[in-house]
């Protein structure tokens, strides 16, 4: 056997070992407490293999003994359970005016959250800010250095996940930004980069509203709009990482021109800055609203957050703006529901968190514009993980990449 063949065989053995280990850990997470014999049966592996893998997981602290189970005819077996607090992960979310970082245990419980504001217009160095936030979280980590698994970054725009490159991010002006490599030079940790809408979907599907649900569309509204799509429990990225780029679906043929050249795109009608733009236009035409006093008449200072807050407080003009937004969003989501027949649609992003009127209108429009079966099936909900959902999702990405979470999420026990 020559050296290349030797390496291939060794590689195969390691790969098989890794896959078996992932499967065993996944089963323990799903079925805990569980005995090694039961694991061997469920994973179709020999008891010797399972004993050795469980020993390894125990040494690393990922699995611990839970107690003695009932006898299945012979000796009473030792039961094992997952130990989520042994290791920690860092998740970063690059939001439109803020970098949010979370340090979480392996059950996605945030230990620490950091948010740092920045102003893109004044030329803030966002990549440096990301590195600063990571450094702070690393310093604050309570687990031994070797038990900090890695860093996940949720980035805006189109991301090449395999290379960790932000291929294009219009609002940030990033073209082929090698974000992973830049960060890898500063930290001795595995680093993964993905689109913020994909991490939102991963986090929600693993630990949030989509837990145990096989088919989920996760729409994220921010400075732009994108969707993470989970089909049969697996994130669907498409061969060019471009799946879920829903921002340029036509929702109003008479709408204003989008930066892509077309008119009335979803992005142009529903992205955060354009919601504010519509509200400001309405107010300049003389609409009555508490928003006027809020900015002391300086209407150009009105933001989406203010509109959502005013809408929730019952301001009828702000409600109208959010309902109008919901109608546009509903048109796009109805199209996705008819195309993909999801069980669940999660709508996230800062806009949604305070915007009940938006969600309700979206639901009505979706019901009107879909076929009966998919329209009735698809529940439309906000993220369960709240404003930190994309950051927690970025941490989740690291867990899946490092073999600490089953990659097929729908196989998880509810
Ligand atoms: Zn467009």
Outline the structure in words.
It is a single chain. 43% of the residues lie in helices and 21% in strands. The protein is α/β, with parallel strands linked by helices and 414 residues long. It has 3 domains: 3-82, Winged helix-like DNA-binding domain superfamily/Winged helix DNA-binding domain (Arc Repressor Mutant, subunit A), CATH 1.10.10; 86-206, 2-Layer Sandwich (Nucleotidyltransferase, domain 5), CATH 3.30.420.40; 216-382, 2-Layer Sandwich (Nucleotidyltransferase, domain 5), CATH 3.30.420. A hairpin with a 4-residue loop joins strand 5 (98-105) and strand 6 (110-117). Helix 1 (3-31) crosses helix 2 (36-43), helix 10 crosses helix 11 (316-340) and helix 11 (316-340) packs across helix 13 (356-369). The longest helix has 29 residues, at 3-31. It is globular, with a radius of gyration of 24 Å. The structure holds zinc ion. Zinc ion (ZN) binds at residues 248, 258, 260, 262, 265, 267-268.
Short summary:
The protein is built from 15 helices and 16 strands. With 414 residues, it is α/β, with parallel strands linked by helices. A hairpin with a 4-residue loop joins β5 and β6 (110-117).
